[in-house]
Amino acid sequence: MICVVQVDTAVDFSTNTMIFTRLTCVLIIASTSIAVQFPPNPTSDMSADDKILKGNKTLEQSEESGHEIETDIDEVKEKKFLDDAMRTVLDPNAMIVKANDIVETFKYQLDELDKVNNSLDVFMDEMDKLSLDVCKTSQEALWSYVTDINNEAKKNEMVRIAAEEDEIKKQYWNILKKKYLNDEQVMNDPKVKRKIRIIKERGTNVQMPQSKQREEIDTMQRIWSRVTVCAYNSSCSAEDSVRTMSDVISIFKTSNDTKELAYYWKVYRDTTGKKIRPIFKDYVVRMNRVAESENFTDAGDMWRYAFEDDNFVATVDRIWSEIKPFYDLLHDYVRAKLKLVYRDLLKSNDKLIPAHILGNLWAQEWQAIYPKVVAYADHMRPKLPANETIHSKDLFDAVDEFHQSLGFESAKDSFQDIKETMATANCLPSSHDMCDGVNYKIKWCGDKVTDVVVGLSRAARLLGHVQYFKHYRNLPPLYRDGPNPAFHDAISDIVAVQLTSPEHLMTLNLVKVETGPEVTLNHLLWVALEKFPLMAYAYVLDKWRWDVFGNSSLEDWNQHWWDLRIKETGVSPPVPRNETDLDPAAKYHVVSHVQYITYLISHVLEFQILLSLCKRANHTGPLHECSIYGVKEAGKLLSDGMALGASEDWRTVLQAITGETELSTEGILQYFSELQKFLQEENIKLAMLSEGDMDQSAPIIVGAIVVLLTILIIVLYCVKKHDVGSKVFSVCGLSKNGSLDIVTNELPQGKSNEVDGISEDKV
């Protein structure tokens, strides 16, 4: 409903006429609003007024008698609305908000909340309601865009509303700082402290919504997202000679041409990191200023605040030091296997793997090279025959059935409408909480499923997020999240790793599956090729960013990146690099100001929680053989932890699920213990094989040396016997009495004697 009042400046309206006109408009709006009654949000907390509702009645206190009197609630609401309308009409500074501009409505509501001096409780209740409304609107706009990704108008609307959502998060924190942080309730109430911590974390870590503050991030994202490069061995003027990022990613997965891979590796970074580097300097300065204004030491410190660990850097270093021995085993195995394919490229003994031959543009996960490094080549991964397909819904049904076996509610509504569409470069699978406590949606990409294991993993992760949404839906809006940034991914991955084991795959009848120790080791290797390189990459990427943010004297940014990459992960650049490059900025998370250490923490949490669930299921064998399918006791343990959302700190939630209060690598190391034994033994064999290759070439080299020495001895013998040498030297002017004595004087005195002294006996 839009109310438009046209005013002709040539006519002088009376005050009464103006008030009447405005009142008419407001009454029209009032009557429309009263006629359309929206149901209350099923997940929002009851307000203080709602708690005394009885049916459609409310209790008020008579001013005369002091007794409670019964009043019709609709009359109360209508009276309140009309009172507000009259205040709007009589206040010359009041603004009538256009109903078609929801963003302006949110801004107006936020300004009004800032002006009014409410108590802390009332302010937080009102902000929760506003945040929930914004969240609903933002998710609707986002969903509208992701289901129609080529619609520019929907994209712009989504971006505009998302920016306002970030602005509200920021202003929520700013208003709290300005008006309420000295409140006695803040100091003494642990629940209020918890809420304020969450508000601060979200308010300081939003992506700087104002356009001026976002300038560097917007520019870096624009450069990164519009990357195209010339095709290998072609000019950009030729037809079909341009390659997008999606094309380059596919080439890295499939090509064995090391020159082609090195070309794309370099040119991609030339068009991203090299161009971004000058902007990145300004971004670092600006982000550090933002962090310092919030009393953090730098932007890295501000990021780490979300993990609620005063010693988080030390915690991360500890975790990596415990995982690195296994990573090194995997790295050495992969290098030895790749050496059989790329013999010339890996002939040096530096123990490094060039980044371009690991099957990934960023070398952050190595599953694409699995066929080259498979443990038992006769037992390949489960794969559909060429003439068979599986519908995406079949995958989600399998995941949903697993969840229900744990005692969870079905989430079938979230994937009922997924479509088998053609995969596009811009399509990303995603899970959406529509913020109303009822509706959850999944965006799926791809025209058909060809790899059941990959498809099941993706479906399980997407539906795992939805299950988490559903578990904390009854909490206040601030608590509808995981207790730290890693929990959502950790919990959604647990069912993914369970579903894709060979033993469970056999029960699904989706694809023909082998079983046995060789198949199990192949599967463990497949999983490890995804998780451990990603954890290594996450560790190095954010260690590098923490160093850049925290050390203003650090100038050799790119050199520091490769120092860390080589030292910690054994991965090297395929071509020379210098300080005009900024190779980390080839990653989306770097140009978008999104932390990455989550992936290291989430994988550790995933197996720490799985270990606890398997103990609850009374499993006694190797952890990778554990299945929690159908074990409702394990499901309840997990469900109770998920239902806490962010209402408690992460240590409390972790303790509720595992009995522990610190991150532990015991689970992940136990899960891959069988693979660890295999890698230790296999690396010894591969090292001997490599030495054997050298041994095979040794007889050829020795034989050649023997032949050359024999020929030399025969020649010297003939020279000595026939005194040919002195004649030749004399002719050349190189006798002791010749004009070039200075040349012969440089030779050691005993040299000629040794040659002269050679006899047949010594030969």
TrEMBL record:
Q: Which residues cross the membrane?
A: 698-719
Query: What are the annotated disulfide bridges?
Result: C427-C445, C614-C626
Keyword annotations of the record: Carboxypeptidase, Disulfide bond, Glycoprotein, Hydrolase, Membrane, Metal-binding, Metalloprotease, Protease, Signal, Transmembrane, Transmembrane helix, Zinc
Q: Which cofactor does it need?
A: Zn(2+)
The record, for Pfam families, names: Peptidase_M2
Query: Where, in this chain's numbering, is Zn(2+) 2 bound?
Result: H465
Q: How is the cofactor bound?
A: Binds 1 zinc ion per subunit.
BP-aspect Gene Ontology terms:
proteolysis
User: What's any one GO cellular component for it?
Assistant: membrane
EC number(s) on file: 3.4.-.-
Q: Which residues are glycosylated?
A: N233, N578
User: Entry's SUPFAM superfamilies?
Assistant: Metalloproteases ('zincins'), catalytic domain
Q: Which residues bind Zn(2+) 1?
A: H465
- Hey, which family's this protein in? Belongs to the peptidase M2 family.
Q: What is the protein's name according to its record?
A: Angiotensin-converting enzyme
Source species of the chain? Heliothis virescens
